[in-house]
Specification:
single chain; alpha/beta; four-stranded antiparallel sheet; 13 helices; 12 strands; 50% helix
Length: 362
């Protein structure tokens, strides 16, 4: 029997009812028609008002006076009457009608123009430029290339642990759906394998890149591009076919994750060590962001014993250190911490900040 080929990842189906699906802008033709109708009504009101006031005022009213009377009525300026309507009740009723129709037409016209501007590409361009300025100011952030099923979970974890990140998604509808679920978070519509797109996402100052699209070949190219643009950035790539893992590693990926392999290990662990799996699952589902984190000791840190640092708090627990390629589990107070060591800590975002503050002390 021939080997089965994995089908490309299908886009996630939005389970929300149609009433809350991403907003679609009305077509330009609808706005143009509304603006045309409002302008036509306003012109007709001006013509009818000018002629009407000319008739009401008789020979004493000029065409300029009649037009001026119409204009100040529709514009609600409120100057005195240039055509005396004191003894002309019909003229005052005519003014009420002109004001009612004219003010309504003018209000509708300006509201249409405002809606057109807000929903037009101009507003999108303004928001895009503002977002690009925000992205340009990021440092030490993460770039998530692909916001499908896996990418969405990656973004959720970054949010839960208070990390800054930029989403890069080639499918515009998926990027818009992400923006609707998370207003204000930066995203770029583009191909993550494109060097220019990665540069717009701030690859030069990024801490890491997640290549998690549904295409192994694209993830490999993303890893290669990211490594060439920033040799110091950490790259984690997703592959379906485990045979592509070595290719991704040669392309520049620091870590390779195969959902099929990881899923198999998870299933086996659920059978063999259920309490450990349940403990990890409960920690990942907590809303307070409690996680097992890695915190690297910065270069400017002066070597000190753990006992001198007093890393004891209910907000974090030191589990191990990784130094010079070896692990030290449950280190004692006499253990010395040096720059470049990695501390493995069970911690929430608040506690992570406290540990980082201690390590930043020279």
């Amino acid at each position: 029997m021939p080997a089965c080929r994995r089908a490309p990842e299908a886009p996630a189906i939005d389970p929300r009812p149609p009433s809350v699906l991403p907003f679609r802008r009305p077509s330009t033709s609808i706005h143009a028609l509304s603006l045309f109708l409002a302008s036509t009504v306003l012109v007709l009101v001006t013509v009818v008002g000018t002629v009407g006031y000319k008739v009401i005022g008789g020979e004493q009213a000029s065409w300029i006076d009649s037009f001026y009377m119409t204009f100040i009525t529709v514009a609600t300026i409120g100057y005195g009457e240039t055509i005396d309507l004191t003894n002309h009740p019909g003229g005052r009723l005519f003014t009420v009608a002109i004001a009612f129709v004219g003010i309504g037409a003018m209000t509708y016209m300006f509201s249409t123009i405002t809606a057109w501007i807000l929903e037009s590409d101009l507003n999108q361009s303004i928001r895009r430029r503002r977002m690009e300025r925000d992205i340009a100011g990021l440092e030490g952030h993460y770039i998530v290339c692909g916001i499908g099923r896996v990418g969405s979970n990656v973004a959720t974890e970054l949010l839960n642990t208070a990390r800054r990140f930029v989403v890069v998604e080639e499918a515009e509808h998926a990027a818009e759906a992400f923006a609707e679920r998370h207003p204000g978070l930066p995203y770029i519509v583009g191909d993550g394998a494109d060097d220019e797109v990665l540069q717009r996402a701030g690859i030069d100052s990024a801490a890491g890149v997640f290549a998690v699209t549904g295409d192994d070949s694209k993830n490999i190219v993303i890893a290669l591009s990211a490594r060439q643009l920033n040799p110091l950035v950490r790259v984690v790539a997703r592959v379906h076919d485990i045979r592509n893992a070595e290719k991704a590693r040669r392309a520049g990926a620091d870590e390779i994750v195969s959902p099929d392999f990881t899923g198999g290990m998870r299933i086996a662990s659920a059978m063999l060590r259920p309490h450990v799996v349940n403990f990890m699952d409960q920690m990942l589902r907590r809303d307070d962001g409690l996680r097992v984190e890695q915190i690297t000791v910065p270069d400017g840190f002066r070597p000190r014993r753990l006992g001198d640092l007093n890393l004891r708090s209910r907000d974090y627990v030191l589990l191990a250190t990784h130094e010079a390629g070896r692990w030290v589990f449950n280190p004692g107070d006499e253990h010395e911490i040096r720059p470049g060591h990695a501390l493995i800590v069970m911690v929430d975002p608040k506690g992570r900040g406290q540990v980082e503050d201690v390590l930043r002390t020279p």
